[in-house]
Amino acid sequence: MEVFQEYLACIDNPENRARVEEILVWINKKFPSLGRRIAWGQPMFTDHGTFIIGFSVAKHHLAVSPEKACLNHFSDEILQAGYSHSKELIRIPWDSAVDFSLLDKMIEFNIADKIECSTFWRK
């Protein structure tokens, strides 16, 4: 988790910082084999060198980037959780609960779906 400390320290709002840290710690414990790195200014997790999920902080929400294929696969569940999304990211409002079950399913999906992927992003 040390790799994320500088990123977390730059989040001005202490409640938002705590929320992001909670999610990153949860993923770290739930998926200890995933790689951790900061790239494109955001914390992300990788598996065998391929992207699994990333996060970024916005004024009104935490943006979750699971890649388009994963987002499309879980689109209905994302909406049922009360989150909005674009083609590339999910918006979790700061005042909404985090659906850890959904995060778990998305991470598991990406790990399984990209098991033979040899590139960082899906082609």
Automatic annotation (TrEMBL):
This is Intracellular iron chaperone frataxin. Residues 17-111 form the YdhG-like domain. Gene3D superfamilies: 3.90.1150.200. SUPFAM superfamilies: YdhG-like. InterPro entries: YdhG-like.
